[in-house]
């Protein structure tokens, strides 16, 4: 029997891992995730994603897969929980594909769309405006779920990623300030909880967990299919221990 550990990124596909967590009846307060974007063959993509699963799928299959994963996340989220789903508007064959195309097919309530203004990007062809932004969707099971925005965050987050691909040997690491902002927005909501459970199904090198690694009130579970990313996460943890 495969064992899923807390406070680890588990080497397992998230489909398998999330189903096991559902079978165990575990529910999460917070899910922060950034799935593969399926951009290998996309317009003016200048990066190489050879060893990175989920980036070269038929688009219809990709969206079907994301819907399957989002349904598992829905089942794993507490009724008062929040999912933060990072994606972007991609351009394929001259046409933009928006993440809301599949997000509106889920049971989630869309609470807010955040524009993450990265102020830089790999795609700078002159046939269109340069896409420098990503999206972060705040999704819940219930329209009444609230945040406490004590940091007066706006719906545009100006966060320039400071890391390079080489820092973590991963092609698509989220800026840690994005995760930090999400935790700050929930800080007062979780103030009375003895334990806060966090999930990242596509954990990569664990950016979603970095801000709470040393906070004993938080317990997390991640999944990834590439062991080298998990090892990089373990090294990353040692650097802040
Ligand atoms: C955009 S990256 C996530 C990066 C992460 N947010 C970070 O900052 O490190 C997506 C990750 O999903 C992983 N992945 C692809 N297919 C997967 C699957 N079926 N289950 C779990 N992880 C998967 C990839 O290996 C990759 O590390």
Can you walk me through this structure?
- The chain has 241 residues and is α/β, with parallel strands linked by helices.
- It has one domain: Vaccinia Virus protein VP39 (Rossmann fold).
- It is built from six helices and ten strands; from the N terminus they run βαβαβββαβββααββα.
- The chain is globular.
- Bound molecules: S-adenosylmethionine.
Key traits:
241 residues, alpha/beta, Rossmann fold, eight-stranded mixed beta sheet, 6 helices, 24% strand, globular, binds S-adenosylmethionine
* SS class: alpha/beta
Helix-residue proportion: 25-40%
Number of helices, counting only DSSP H or I runs of 4 residues or more: 6
Radius of gyration: 17 Å
Shape: globular
Second rung of CATH, namely the architecture = 3-Layer(aba) Sandwich
Low-confidence blocks of residues: none
Which molecules are bound in this entry?
Answer: S-adenosylmethionine
Strand order of the largest sheet: 1-10-9-2-3-7-6-8
CATH topology: Rossmann fold
- What's the number of domains? 1
Quick gist of this model?
With 241 residues, the chain is α/β, with parallel strands linked by helices.
Question: What is the strand and helix layout of this fold?
Answer:
Elements lengths: L7 E4 L2 H11 L3 E6 L25 H18 E11 L2 E3 L2 E3 L2 H4 L5 E9 L15 E8 L15 E3 L6 H4 L7 H11 L9 E5 L17 E7 L2 H14 L1
Parallel strand pairs: 1-10, 2-3, 2-9, 6-8, 9-10
Antiparallel strand pairs: 3-7, 4-5, 6-7
Helix pairs in contact: 1-2
The chain binds S-adenosylmethionine.
């Amino acid at each position: 029997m495969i064992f899923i550990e807390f406070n680890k990124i588990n080497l397992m596909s998230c489909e398998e891992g999330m189903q096991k967590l559902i079978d165990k009846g575990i529910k999460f307060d917070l899910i922060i995730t950034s799935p593969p974007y399926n951009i290998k063959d996309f317009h003016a993509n200048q990066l190489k994603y050879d060893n990175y699963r989920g980036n070269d799928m038929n688009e219809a299959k990709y969206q079907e897969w994301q819907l399957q994963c989002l349904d598992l996340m829905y089942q794993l989220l507490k009724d008062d929980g929040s999912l933060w789903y990072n994606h972007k508007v991609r351009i394929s064959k001259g046409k933009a594909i928006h993440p809301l195309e599949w997000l509106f097919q889920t049971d989630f309530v869309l609470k807010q769309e955040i524009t993450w203004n990265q102020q830089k990007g790999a795609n700078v062809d002159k046939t269109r405006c340069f896409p420098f932004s990503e999206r972060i969707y705040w999704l819940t099971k219930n329209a009444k779920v609230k945040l406490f925005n004590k940091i007066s965050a706006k719906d545009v987050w100006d966060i320039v990623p400071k890391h390079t691909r080489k820092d973590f040997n991963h092609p698509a690491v989220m800026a840690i300030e994005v995760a930090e902002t999400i935790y700050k927005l929930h800080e007062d909501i979780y103030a009375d909880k003895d334990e806060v459970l966090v999930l990242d199904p596509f954990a990569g090198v664990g950016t979603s967990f970095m801000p709470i690694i040393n906070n004993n009130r938080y317990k997390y579970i991640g999944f990834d299919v590439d062991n080298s990313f998990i090892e990089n996460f373990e090294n990353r943890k040692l650097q802040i221990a």
